[in-house]
UniProtKB/TrEMBL annotation:
It comes from Arthrobacter ramosus. Gene3D superfamilies: NAD(P)-binding Rossmann-like Domain. Signal peptide: none annotated. This is SDR family NAD(P)-dependent oxidoreductase. It holds the Pfam family adh_short. Keywords: Oxidoreductase. It comes from the Bacteria. Residues 8-196 form the Ketoreductase domain. The keyword Metal-binding does not apply. Belongs to the short-chain dehydrogenases/reductases (SDR) family. The keyword Cell cycle does not apply.
Length: 254
């Protein structure tokens, strides 16, 4: 595989499972030093060891990105270890489904905290370093990839607050793109359809049996590696090319 990211460093949130873990492996295989950020330290350390065994460079950083200080510290640890930050992948997310009527508002707070506030915290902390990399690094470009969802394009009953967060991610991404793109920080959104990960498992058994399990049983969904491939595509374009939006769907999902 072409090592197009040699000499760069990437921070991936939600790297302890699913799409984030696959993205970390993919970017590391292409030569990036990767900072792995999530709450489950054991998972991060196992992944970091795997990446290093494969010849890559990885740093496990335990952090809850809903806490602004922890998100900031994660970025600072990345800079301390790797000296620069070229790529931020805002991937950490939570999907708690169900009707608005009778919902536990605490579930909404948790989703808004991770999917929106967490993304804002890491972006705010990382942006000065990304702008610096776009000026000073040999690549002369830096990247933010925000993992949104098909749920950032289409709303469905029972997905209300998840839809709210992902529509919000899309709006914020495009606004930030316009703010910094001429300084060569590329900002893009990647919207996956169904991917085989732990995402749906955080719902109640009733929600899972009614809303998510039938979908996953009836649809040939994507693998996390399919999304990692999309992230790698976005961050390895020539300097003059910015992928503002990438919508990756299972062929089987209408
Ligand atoms: P997973 O549940 O496998 O991964 C979610 C990741 O987010 C975990 O690594 C988790 O780590 C991390 N995370 C959750 N809360 C926090 C927090 N407070 N601080 C830091 N990290 C946190 O699901 P996916 O891989 O599927 O999800 C990744 C992204 O992809 C999400 O944004 C999701 O919305 C999006 N997506 C997924 C789709 C799918 O079908 N799977 C479809 C469309 C979009 P830990 O628990 O260790 O903190």
């Amino acid at each position: 595989m072409t090592a197009k990211l040699t000499g760069t460093s990437a921070l991936i949130t939600g790297a302890s499972s699913g799409i984030g873990a696959a993205t970390a492996r993919e970017l590391a295989a292409r030569g990036a030093s990767v900072a792995l950020v999530a709450r489950r330290r054991d998972r991060l350390e196992t992944l970091a060891a795997d990446i290093e065994n494969d010849g890559g460079t990885a740093l496990a950083i335990e952090a809850d990105i809903t806490d602004r200080a922890q998100a900031q510290a994660a970025v600072e640890k990345t800079i301390e270890r790797f000296g620069q930050l070229d790529i931020l992948v805002n991937n950490a997310g939570l999907m708690l489904l169900g009707p608005v009527l009778g919902a536990d508002p605490e579930d909404w707070t948790r989703m808004i905290s991770v999917n929106l506030q967490g993304l804002l915290h890491t972006t705010h902390a990382a942006l000065p370093h990304l702008l610096k990399a776009a000026e000073d690094s040999p690549r002369q470009v830096a990247d933010i990839v925000n993992i949104s969802s098909i749920a950032g394009r289409v709303a469905w009953g029972g997905y209300g607050v998840y839809n709210l967060t992902k529509f919000g991610v899309n709006g914020f991404t495009e606004s930030l793109r316009q703010e910094v793109t001429r300084r060569h920080v590329r900002v893009g959104v990647l919207e996956p359809g169904g991917v085989d990960t732990e995402l749906a498992s955080h719902n109640t058994p009733e929600i899972q049996s009614g809303m998510t399990t039938p979908f996953y049983e009836q649809t040939e969904v994507l693998a996390p590696a399919d999304i990692a491939d999309g992230v790698a595509y976005m961050v390895t374009r020539p300097r003059h090319t910015s992928i503002a939006e990438l919508w990756i769907m299972p062929t089987d999902q209408a």
